[in-house]
Amino acid sequence: MTDAKPAKLAIRGLSKSFRKGDTTIEALRNLSLNIEAGEFIAIVGASGCGKTTMLRLVDGLTEPTAGTILVDGKPLENPGKQLAFVFQQDGLLPWRTVLTNAVFGPELQRRDMAQSISVAQRFLRLVGLKQFPRHYPHELSGGMRQRVNIARALTVGADILLMDEPFAALDAQTREIMQAELLRIWSETRKTMLLVTHQIDEAVFLADRVLIFTTRPGRLKDEVRIDLPRPRDLSVKRTPAFTRYTDYIWRAIEEEVRHSIEAELEQA
Amino acid sequence: MAQDDTSSLKARIAAPGAGWKWPQVKPSFWQGLASFIIAAVLWEIVARVVVKNPLFFTSLVDVVERGIALWQSGELQTHIWTSFVEFAGGYLLAAVLGILGGIGMAASKTARGFFDPWMSMLYSTPILALGPLFILWLGIGMTSKIAVIFMVAVFPILINTLVGLTTTDRLLLDVGRSLGATPHQLYLKVRIPAALPYIIAGLRLSVARALVGVVVAELFGARAGLGFLILQSAQSFDTAAMFVGVVILAAAGVGSVALLKLVERKMAPWRFENVDD
Question: Model's pTM, two decimal places?
Fold first, then answer.
């Protein structure tokens, strides 16, 4: 990798403070990181470490107090087109069918609909929902809805996918399956992935690099490169190397988790 | 429940467009029908055996006969038509202005600040008590009735529209913003569709209030209408004719509420997924 080529996604000095009554809460302090094209990054940290805030800042859903976001070396101009967000809850519009939900992004951006619909159909096939275009979200299971959520983000056509604990609302077995599915989708689309999760094993299983955040204010505490061979399947979770990574990350995070629990107890 | 969902899904995939089937009649329908029949029989027994004086109570058969006689004289049609025009005028006005007002108040914080106290006050005031005042101002004709019906029917629609538009799920708004929606698109494609079930529920609540409005407004002074029929028959001890008016109003109420419930189900099926069966 040469220095001349700018990172796919670069975050520079990103900070965010909220005002809550009389006090100011610092959610994120001076975060900088580079993510290369096609890289899979996972962010772990205790609750309230600002990881969801960071994703929202990158996607332009929340205004940062300071900092800039660069895509391909240029300031982010149109988050709707350049980035796609996969929400923790599926966030499907209940009055729209699977297909019209999937194509919602291009519709809002007034793109050519005939072409966008065929793009959406392609991604619905990729997430395994080809037979359900006319179904409504309430007719689908939680796992199926989350697949539509992912297809909707892919249909935007952005190179970068931001995922906020996308499988947290699913049961444990479905979650495992969805992790493997996500790797397959990633290997077929070569998107740049930035995933926030609570699950250490999910982070190690999916990512090239795992970033560990400190508790409030969120800062980068440690970074672990995961050198497990690809393509990975779920059996990799039972290898000693996998356990070494999860143990290392858990030890790094444990102290932070204790701090955050103590802070919560003090507030109560 | 969840298993039923998937099996019906599979059925739909296996047999796409399997043809139209008769809507399944639920057991609760038959129970309701049976209870109506039992009530009718009891009514007849009470009228023939217990309260024999037709001044106080009258047999169902007499009510039907009286209804047919009123219809043949053309009098009943006049009453129904008068009440219908008053109802339709007041209710449609309430629907249009209620929805537009709700949209306006949802869009502007200033408008909310100005009108919210009035809305709360008028909603909790028994506006029907102002009926005589409306008659005084607008006369004994239809206009005063339309005004009364409008006043009682507008607030549930206005409030539901406002609540529906201002309580949109934050997640859905975030989804729209993340996908690049302009504020205008967020309104049109997220807020309004999300508010529709609330608006229809408001329309349904208002139907019952508007029907009460019809009757009460006519009681205060009218020349025709079902409320007028009820008042006039009661005063001339024509109990059967009074019940004709009551039964027609009850049927209109049940019918219109059932119709709006059907519309609600068609437009927002996701809100009813755990309600049936």
Answer: 0.80
